[in-house]
Write a structure and sequence with these properties.
Length: 663
């Protein structure tokens, strides 16, 4: 075999055939260099613990003796479930499940002792492990095993083997990407050492240092990008817009704007209206869930359309894009301003028609998902680009959307309150509009946190509300990829249970694995009230607006972050009726209890975000959740660290962010 280098194609590797090569390529892994940048999402320590509620939700190892002969059950969909009971040295019992691995029946023997590694669950005082890894022997000394994201069906173990087989051969080729002074100032390991430690950590300290560097890189790159973006923006100007007749717009709204909405609209107007050249608008509209950001977006769109321009409105999900389309159609059809929808499932002929309509130098509003930025043929004459739930998009995506218009203003909306200190990295104080007032008639959403044992009572309550003609959501977590099976299963199980229980009210089921068209059908049935109860995974988390929905039940609530639960809760309390949110959790872990209690105590999204920030670090606010920091000290990844990295980036204005630095 020829000598391996970072550029060597992965298909040259032993163990990578056509199928795996294709799967890797699909995920952007073409050469060995790419492969080495596929970092583990977390690490398993081979440290051994006793079963304890405190460990719930974490990966840990247990030395367990098998008490019962494993039994095999058949599940719907021809899935097979293996179940056994085992106990640790203190006699605490745990039920262990394996899906679709019937052969384990003959490998796990009653009376034998094994080391099991997995995430512990607890329900009503009963512990369980789903598909834990199992070893007969345990090496002496502590060991950290990387867990890779499942890529195109290639297991973490296979990826680990592949990576280890090349790692040492190419290590000397890995070049430093950060300035030497920065490495020294922040005591960061060099890049080769970082990559080595991430894939094959020798000690916890090494791993920790590597993770710290990775975070730094990410923040530093963010700082570089930010600078380029801001410098570029500052130089860009456009013609000021003519004032519009707002009465015309307000007459088409089904309600009066709140004071806060009016203030935001006039701030936008101030940015855009003027004679001669004006700087491009770059405004952030922050407002808690339900504060009415969409109406402000519509007002901004109106102003631009009245000035003859096109408006792009990008939402993070198709459901949300469709909803906005409906809202906007209702308003703008009265004003004779055309509204179009473009998503991944838009038919070719329709797309062609949209392109024709949007390149005629006439006003239009085009609403869509990521498809908007991916489609290069699109859009002439763009005056304004709006992003909804902007924390879902990276800086680069937003910039790309903006680039659609040669000279284009931007309005970013966010309900996940980016902590102010973080927002100020992106916007000047005068560029932030805040909706700090809810539309009138809203009542506080009463939030309860109950144990699994009280579920029946929650159901009785739900029944009352459904009988009164109201609508409700039941949300179940869909967990990490390797748990997807059991997560989806639990959502499906909940659906079955609820369907039986509440059949007469119509029960719908919505999850991320469904086709977009299927999703829309279910969502429409719920919007129309044909289905009164909607069981779902978190696909409804963002922005969905059905004012008739008054009850939100969240199963396994401990699985969600606070901001996410707050978003979920914001799906109810949007109409005139009193609304309720019921968090069900069987977890007895202290941190989970504290978080859920916090949610009952406050409905201030900002306070919740601060709490999240304190307990989980700023990673959550980078749009994509950070992983791999399973046991890193959250304080290390604090806002100060972010600030330092962004500050440091300012010293290197010419440096271009590396391809590897994603955020
Ligand atoms: P969010 O800020 O979470 O995006 P939406 O824009 O979806 O909130 O608005 C939430 C609900 O409040 C919608 O049903 C909308 O019609 C309604 N709404 C918005 N503004 C007002 C207002 N000024 N008066 C009454 N209802 C309003
Ligand atoms: Mg919204």
């Amino acid at each position: 075999m020829e000598k391996l280098s970072l550029q060597t194609s992965v298909s040259a590797l032993h163990g990578v055939g056509k199928v795996r090569g294709e799967a890797l390529k699909k995920n952007g892994i073409v050469c060995i260099g790419d492969l080495l940048e596929l970092f583990p999402r977390r690490y398993l320590s081979n440290r051994i613990y006793f079963l304890s509620p405190e460990l719930c939700g974490q990966y840990a190892g247990y030395e367990l003796t098998v008490d019962t002969t494993p039994i095999l059950a058949l599940l719907p969909g021809r899935r097979r479930l293996l179940k056994l009971i085992a106990s640790d040295g203190a006699g605490t019992k745990v039920t262990i499940y394996y899906f679709n691995q019937p052969y384990l029946k003959n490998q796990i023997l009653k009376g034998e002792t094994y080391f099991f590694f997995g995430e512990l669950h607890e329900k009503n005082g009963v512990f369980s492990l789903f598909s834990p890894e199992r070893e007969k022997e345990r090496k002496n000394g502590e060991e950290w095993r990387p867990v890779y994201p499942a890529i195109g069906g290639i297991s973490s173990k296979t990826l680990e083997k592949l990576i280890r087989s090349v790692l040492y051969n190419v290590l000397s080729e890995i070049r430093e990407t950060l300035p030497e002074t920065i490495l020294q100032r922040f005591s960061l390991p060099n890049r080769a050492k970082t990559i080595l430690s991430l894939h094959a950590p020798l000690t916890e300290a090494d791993l920790h240092a590597a993770q710290r560097r990775l975070t730094f890189e990410k923040y530093f790159a963010f700082g570089l990008e930010l600078q380029r973006f801001q410098t570029k923006e500052k130089q860009r100007v456009a013609d000021g817009l003519a004032p519009c007749r707002w009465e015309k717009f307000f007459a088409c709204l089904p309600y009066r704007l709140t004071g806060a909405q009016q203030k935001a609209v006039s701030e936008i107007e101030n940015d855009l209206v003027g004679s001669g050249k004006i700087p491009l608008m770059n405004r952030l509209l922050q407002g808690d869930v339900g504060s009415g950001k969409t109406a402000v977006a519509a007002a901004a769109a109106f102003l631009c359309a009245e000035n003859g321009g096109g408006v792009l409105f990008m939402a993070p999900t198709e459901i949300l894009a469709r909803q906005h389309e409906k809202t906007f159609r209702a308003i703008f059809s009265q004003l004779k301003i055309p509204v179009f929808l473009l998503t991944g499932s838009t038919a070719k002929t329709e797309r062609t028609a949209i392109i024709r309509e949007t390149t005629q130098n006439r006003p239009y509003i085009l609403i869509g998902t990521h498809a908007l930025i991916e489609d290069t043929a699109l859009c002439g004459n763009v005056l304004l680009a709006i992003t909804d739930e902007q924390h879902r998009f990276g800086v680069r995506q937003r910039a790309k959307l903006r680039e659609k218009g040669t000279l284009c203003h931007t309005l970013a909306m966010s309900a996940t309150p980016i902590p102010r200190s973080l927002a100020l990295f992106l916007y000047a104080p005068e560029e932030i509009s805040v909706l700090d007032e809810l539309p009138p008639g809203r009542q506080k959403i009463d939030t309860f946190y109950i144990g699994e044992d009280k579920k029946k009572r929650a159901y009785a309550f739900l029944r009352e509300k459904l009988q009164a003609g109201q609508r409700a959501y039941v949300v179940c977590p869909l967990i990490e990829p390797n748990e997807q099976l059991c997560g989806l299963l639990s959502a499906q199980e909940a659906y079955k249970e609820l369907q039986k229980e509440f059949r007469e009210f119509g029960v719908g089921f919505l999850h991320g694995k469904m086709k977009n068209a299927e999703k829309s059908t279910v969502m429409e049935a719920f919007q129309k009230g044909e289905v009164q109860l909607l069981v779902s995974t978190t696909v409804i988390e963002v922005g969905v607006d059905v004012p008739e929905a008054t009850v939100m039940i969240v199963m396994n609530a401990e699985r969600f972050g606070l901001s996410q639960l707050h978003q979920l809760r914001g799906r109810v309390g949007r109409g005139k009726e009193k609304s309720f949110c019921i968090l069900i959790s069987a977890s007895s872990a202290k941190s989970a209890r504290e978080r859920l209690k916090k949610l009952c105590e406050t409905d201030d999204g900002f306070e919740l975000a601060q709490f999240d920030l304190k307990t989980r670090g700023p990673g959550e606010f980078f749009g994509e959740r950070q992983t791999g920091f399973a046991f890193a000290n959250p304080e290390e990844f604090s806002l100060e660290f972010l600030r330092d990295a962004i500050q440091a980036a300012k010293e290197f204005p010419g440096l271009f962010p590396q391809k590897t630095l994603q955020y």
